[in-house]
Amino acid sequence: MKSHQFIVVVLFLAFSLVSVGYGQQSAEQLYQSALYKEEIEGEMDAAIKIYETIVKQYPDNRPVAAKALLHFGICKERLGLKEAQLAYELVVRDYADQAEPTKLARERLNILSGGKAAANISSEASMRRIWVAGKNQPLGVSPNGRYVVFGMNDTGDLWLRDLQSGEQRQITREGSWVDWTYASDAAISPDGKQIAYSWTVRSFGELRLSALDGSSMRVLHNGQDGRWMYISTWMPDGQRILASSYNLKDKTNQRQIISLSDGSIHNIGQPELEAIDWGYPSPDGRYIAYGLRGDIFVHDTMTKKDSVLIQNPSKDSMVGWMKDGSGILFVSDRSGTRDLYLQEIKNGRSLGGLELLRLNLIASQNPNFTTSNLNLTTDGRLFQLENTGTTNAYISPFDETTGKVTDTQSLVDQNYPRAAWTEWSPDGKLLYYEIFKDPQLNERLLFIRSEETGQTREISLKPKLRYWYRPILSPDGKQFAVTGTGENYDFGIFAIDRESGEVSQLARIPDENNPVDPSQNWSPDGKAIFYKVRSPEESEEFIIRRKDLITGEEKDIYRGMHTRDMKISSDGTRFVYFRNDRPTKSYVLGILDIKSGKESELWRVPEADSPEISGPTWAPDGKHILVAKSLKQGSELWRFPVDGGPGEKLYSNPESTWGFVMHPSGKRMAFTQSRTNYELWVLENFLPK
Fold this sequence. Notes:
Neuraminidase; five-stranded antiparallel sheet; four-stranded antiparallel sheet; 49 strands
């Protein structure tokens, strides 16, 4: 009891003595900034201070104060501090009128204070960071935890790193962002001698197998049958590989087992419209667990039948099997946070004993986290990949006299992190942008802000699209055109009404031949849209198509090179774009005359000098082109005369900066900034003894 009273006093003093340095922000703004510190940057101590400020300074704003106190407890819990339990108790006692925070606080209390689950959390469990990979993305850890295979950011090639010695060696030597050839998934064999990996080759994907040094490479699937295949993992016998595929023709996902002895590919079960998290074999290889629609199933390789392992209204995701096959590890959000559980399994069926192993699994609150970021090794260690980077949009003044972007920059939206793809309306009165609410689920929000009043409004899509990106406002300002996928998985260009949010399809784009980013553009009068498709006859030929929105007539106006990120001129006669020039291993900035089809080259950048150029756009004067140039570290903004001539560097930034757009007045510049920082962590000694 004395200990409990002491903690009450400590909490009271903490809330009372917090600095009032946040006084100019609203409770909701403070809450969002604290949430960003907690969930994105992982800075628990900084988040706790802000949550304390909210509880102290805004007691009358009960909805926000209740959430702040709840997250104060969550942060304390993640730090392993006993104040967490008391914080939850205060939520239940003092904020009973706030249903959702109270419900979540009760659930956390039930877990912390009771029963077998809490008793089984190992006091010896430890989490440590073992590698900061930066921009190089780890793709898989060897079964014994000795090696990690990763994609080299500069080229897309596969590399291998020894986690004990730190030694690195190259596996593939064909990667090139100009050629669009790179690795995306990889798995090391049980004996540590071979690697299977997914390899993109321009318009299709291959499945490959080689020795760890890249020798003896063979193609298991060439991807030219309309299926894009991805590596999942190896079967324990080392003679078979688990993979999944996406069929471009019927848009379905399929599970596969590939035999290495004869290269045969066996389909498992029925095709599914939803993505399948396939590939968690039991130690003896008889059962293969997999995730689908938020539940966990198991496939019996002997009976060829599937059955349910875990079915719950919450989202459950598979992690792996216990070494002796007696249970499975999975992540669930059933308590309000993503926790690690152990479910007892016998003969392919779930038994009673569900045990909580780890509260608030590290990175579980990061929206970039999925269980594909987890690798369970044969010795019971859990490797976890986290990207601690950030993405946000900014506005900076632009000096017309010097032609330079100033260093003074402000966030596009103070209340929401992860803003991107900022644009102004043609008259400059409206600013609109995307918010990456949940990158894991490709969930985005569309916001629009009046530059005259400062009022910001979210536009809710009705009906929702499964996926969408890059909104472009029509010349009359009444609707947006976005690239997206509808409820029926139909890919194309959709219109979103600016006032009502009503969604309608403007153009369907065939995706049987691997769809390409259409780079949709409105005609200057708003009566037509232009967009790009891949030729059905030749995968390396691209078509710019014009659709009349009044008559519905579609006309192909250009065939040839891939005009990436194309933007139409204000008079509707030209497109600015960039393209990959494979023969010379370079990127080309160009202008295409729509009527003649003639290209005018403005700039050529060797791949050796830049990973990519991107986002070319017209300056408000119509006489210049703005374009971003990526560097190995940072980015630059360049300006080129439309009629040709040397370019001028306007701005440089040590972070990856892209999507530069200028306000029609020519006095302000908006852009998006990204920082990628991959880290590899390992959780040890967390399994029951």
